[in-house]
Amino acid sequence: MSAKTADRIATGVIYAVSALIVVILAGLLGYIIFRGIGHISWHFLTSAPQTIKAGGGIGPQLFNSLFLLVLTLIITIPLGLGAGIYMSEYAKAGRLTDTIRLIVEVLSSFPSIVIGLFGLLVIVNLFGLGFSLFSGALALTVFNLPLMVRITEQALRGVPREQKEASLALGLSRWKTITSVMLPIATPAIVTGTILAAGRVFGEAAALLFTAGMSSPRLDFTNWNPLDERSPLNPFRPAETLAVHIWKINSEGLAPDASQIAAGASAVLIIMVLVFNFGARWFGRYLHRKFTATK
Amino acid sequence: MERPAVKDNHMEQQGNRARKVVKPHVVEEWVGKVYTAICILVLVVTIGAIVYFVSSRGLTTFIKDGVSLSGLLGGLKWDPEADIPLYGALPFIFGSFSTSLLAALIAAPLGVCAAVFMTQIMPGIGKRILQPVIELLAGIPSVVFGFVGLSVIVPALRSIFPGQGIGIAAGAIVLSLMILPTITTIATDALAGLSAGLKEGSYALGATRWQTIYRIVIPTTLPALLTGVVLGMSRAFGEALAVQMVIGNSPHIPHSLFESASTLTSVITLDMGNTVMGSAHNNALWSLALILLAMTFVFVFVVRFLERRKNR
């Protein structure tokens, strides 16, 4: 076989594989959305699930997922920003920094089920928080924090050196430089990264099985007192999220329409993830335009 | 007291004035330092706590329940509820390794091909179509992969091969889709970072594009490509729900790829909620979690080793 024929065959194979990957994703998304879309209705999105009867919805689960995401971000963002700023601005090259970097790397590669187990042992049992939204949010924080640190660190490293030096030369303190000069410039990148990370959190289930729990109490959506047991806003109630619900009905669902519910819920989850993805891109571009006056 | 009080006072005033000018800066600087240091401390304490708590529970099996390490790692039979409980975790270890290795074997060629396409063949289309596709694939939640695996891949395998369709093959296929983005992204970065001079030299000598790719580009970036594969394997090894949904969950080493099996993660997922904290069965599950934790460290150190090779 001449070198030219080999080149043509190999190029053909690479084209085919790349096309295959695109087809697989299109097939995946198409399958999930087309199978599930027929089942999605206002009733499905707002009503409570049924255990053994048909016609259950995913209302509480959808609410729990969104609420949990908000709680998680409230805890993660300040911690992640702080740690990211430390890594990019304050850490001096040396053994300590190398160790911290290793720790972030290890933490980011811990399996999410192990983080869930840690949550069960420490947050749920030792701290006595029980199966609750708050426990779930803490577990998801552990799961999300390394990513948040990396996003912040990279965003800050992307800030032009001249702007940082100009600010320091004007006599501003390092902290003032970071908060008033560098963070605004890094915001588009941080926001994009955070929304993408939020999409990941939204679909996470393994870390939540043993922290936020696999059941949802009857919620009274007219009761907005965050301390009441039946209030949806109470962060100390057990809460099954959408992703956990999909897992549960797939493995032990008793309702006769379990597979349709799984399909519908998967479609909702995928649509939300797509919204997060495209939203992140769009919003990042928008912020970038707004902050830098470029087209 | 014969010390010149006036001079002292004067100096103090000066010092005060100087301090007044510096003060807000110093305070600001300290706020920043303390705040970021606390954040880092939280990270460090968290990982320390994870390692400590999981190990302390995981080691109870050996200390209190008298199971030997070799018995756990090498035992073939897992039957914790029997009269004479048996804690042989080899079937799960086998399941975890075989699914993640197979997944890496499927995903690595695909991912490297995609990376080559995006960097060497058609960067334009690659950036505009393939890259968003890979990013979207990375964003799909694992339960959705599990659901698709259960409703598409398992029936497909059942109609082609003998058996139920569930098993290591189904798990490996689902996992390969999940780790494809990891492998592709790292491979793309590595290939894009290759200096143009090497490639141009090869072309100038009359090599075809394919010859350049597999004689120059791939060998030079091999450590980085392997890093991606190892990271992908590490992700596959720790993935719980998607695998649990398609693997069948029977606690023995299967005779074929299409027979029900289990992984470390799947058995933890299923049994942790059904056992009493502190019972021998429960402790054994924590030991399995400890194995997962240890493997994470192994993967991280392999990646570190490969990165050192890359930088040389």
Question: Might you state the CATH topology name of the largest domain in chain B?
Answer: MetI-like fold
**Beta-strand percentage of chain B?**
under 5%
The portion of residues assigned to helices of chain A is over 70%
- The pLDDT mean of chain B sits at 84
Q: Please tell me the CATH architecture of the largest domain in chain B by its name.
A: Orthogonal Bundle
User: What ranges of chain A have pLDDT less than 50 throughout 5 or more consecutive residues?
Assistant: none
The rounded distance between the terminal residues' Cα atoms of chain B is: 69 Å
Largest interface by Cβ-Cβ < 8 Å: A-B, 89 and 86 residues
- The CATH superfamily of the largest domain in chain A is known as MetI-like
* CATH top level assignment of the largest domain in chain B: Mainly Alpha
Number of domains of chain A: 2
Strand order of the largest sheet of chain B: 1-2
How confident is the prediction overall: mean pLDDT of chain A? 85
Biggest sheet statistics of chain B: 2 strands, antiparallel
Give the ordered list of helices and strands of chain B: HHEEHHHHHHHHH
Number of helices of chain A: 10
Net shape of chain B: globular
Structural class of chain A: mainly alpha
Features:
heterodimer; A: 295 residues; mainly alpha; MetI-like fold; 2 domains; 10 helices; 72% helix; B: 312 residues; 2 strands; globular; disordered N terminus
Task: Give a short overview.
The complex is a heterodimer of chains A (295) and B (312). With 295 residues, chain A is mostly helical. Chain A is built from ten helices and no strands.
